[in-house]
């Protein structure tokens, strides 16, 4: 049952994550996501077979945690009003959406713990929402394409260092796989666990 809830929360969270990319791009002058039908809550428009189904199931069964993503929202950086910072703003929209969800449900957990407002079942569900959205936010801030952090890195890198970005893009799949299976469990998962306790006051 927990696995079903976790997958459901993951799917809803990545959908909101991707919609936020498309909507911010639209506000900044690019309608690519709108014309591609990606400004919708329909999960079929966003789910990626590997990132939304196979990988989450695999990481849950082998490591007890869930990592996943949806299909990247298409956008044309040349249509954005701000050519330098526009792509970075679009990239940041997804993780910021996940962090907003974390703050909302983390605050509810804190208030409920203090005033005993909601039942125990709420704590379990809200904790899962906070944990999964923390994972999505932290994972997507890693500066490896196609993760959102790569757009932030590109905006801050001097032009003469753009070769770093090209190298990351060329070998992105290899870097992502190495990161997920070798770096994430030992470095970033403890960071997520620390942030979870800091925000909710609960221990995973």
Automatic annotation (TrEMBL):
The chain crosses the membrane at residues 6-28, 49-69, 89-109, 121-142, 171-196. Keywords: Cell membrane, Hydrolase, Membrane, Metal-binding, Metalloprotease, Protease, Transmembrane, Transmembrane helix, Zinc. One of its GO terms (cellular component) is plasma membrane. Its cofactor is Zn(2+). GO terms for molecular function: metal ion binding; metallopeptidase activity. It holds the Pfam family Peptidase_M50. One of its GO terms (biological process) is proteolysis. Residues 6-109, 122-179 form the Peptidase M50 domain. It is found in: Cell membrane. The keyword Metal-binding applies. Belongs to the peptidase M50B family. This is Site-2 protease family protein. It comes from Candidatus Tagabacteria bacterium CG03_land_8_20_14_0_80_41_22.
